[in-house]
């Protein structure tokens, strides 16, 4: 398929040499026409464990569903597109969080794709899944927080808009890295226009968050436990 990336007026006058030809199926060194169209339209195109990529074919199945099709078929087509869109939105949020992480894991500095499967409980970054314990904690936390961020931006998500993170200390995440992540949680919360809740349990609180507007309860010390259990 030939595609011209300029405006309509330009396409009617442009010679064939200014049009780009794309295959119907992506290859290792050439994107498909569907991927090219989504790139030009600035629609996020991210791999998922469902149907690979959102394709023009999927969109057309939804838009041109006629009256001869049963309502169940139309609903399944709609759900397929919606689920693929949800996976893409979550992946984009996780990618953004990883790029904002401190420079501790090379692949997190400029990742190109995130894929995940709920059935296998797995997350891949650029097809890699083996990381240090602290980076795995950041990755999993980024997924939870990214899922919440996507849900706050799209009302079709069946998500309670609630996120609780309580893993960083146990997985050896250094204080400054955990505090950076806390600031990302605050950013996402402030950017949200819907009701939500983020609970972040930590003994390494970012000084900017040491405020009654964000904290609940007293700080735990050896002399003053937050849960005062007496024997």
Please explain how this structure is put together.
The chain has 231 residues and is mainly alpha-helical. The protein has a single domain, classed as Rossmann fold. The protein contains 7 helices and 6 strands; from the N terminus they run E-H-E-H-H-H-H-E-E-H-E-H-E. Strands 1-2 form a two-stranded antiparallel ribbon. Helix 3 packs across helix 4 and helix 4 packs across helix 6. The longest helix has 29 residues. It is elongated. The termini are far apart.
Question: Which CATH class applies here?
Answer: Alpha Beta
Cα-to-Cα separation, first versus last residue: 77 Å
How much beta, percentage-wise? 5-15%
Strand order of the largest sheet: 1-2
- The domain count comes to 1
Instruction: Say what the CATH topology is.
Output: Rossmann fold
The level of helicity is: 40-55%
The average pLDDT is: 83
Low-confidence stretches: none
Using only CA atoms, what is the Rg?
Answer: 22 Å
For the sheet with most strands, the description reads: 2 strands, antiparallel
Count all strands and give the number: 6
H and E string: EHEHHHHEEHEHE
Question: Total helix count?
Answer: 7
Shape: elongated
Structural class given helices, strands, pairing?
Answer: mainly alpha
């Amino acid at each position: 398929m030939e595609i011209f990336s300029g405006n309509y007026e330009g396409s009617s006058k442009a010679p064939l040499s200014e049009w780009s030809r794309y295959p119907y199926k992506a290859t290792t060194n050439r994107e498909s026409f569907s991927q090219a169209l989504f790139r030009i339209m600035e629609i996020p195109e991210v791999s998922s464990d469902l149907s690979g990529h959102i394709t023009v074919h999927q969109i057309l199945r939804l838009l041109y569903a006629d009256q001869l099709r049963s309502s169940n078929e139309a609903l399944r087509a709609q759900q397929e597109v919606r689920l693929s869109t949800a996976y893409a939105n979550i992946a984009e949020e996780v990618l953004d969080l990883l790029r904002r992480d401190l420079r501790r894991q090379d692949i997190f500095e400029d990742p190109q794709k995130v894929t995940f499967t709920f059935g296998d409980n797995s997350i891949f970054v650029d097809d890699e899944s083996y990381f240090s314990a602290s980076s795995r904690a950041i990755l999993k936390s980024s997924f939870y927080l990214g899922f919440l961020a996507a849900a706050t931006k799209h009302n079709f998500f069946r998500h309670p808009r609630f996120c609780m993170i309580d893993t960083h200390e146990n997985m050896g995440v250094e204080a400054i890295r955990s505090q950076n992540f806390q600031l990302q949680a605050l950013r996402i919360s402030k950017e949200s226009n819907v009701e939500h809740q983020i609970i972040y349990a930590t003994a390494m609180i970012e000084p900017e968050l040491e405020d009654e507007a964000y904290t609940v309860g007293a700080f735990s010390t050896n002399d003053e436990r937050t849960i005062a259990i007496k024997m």
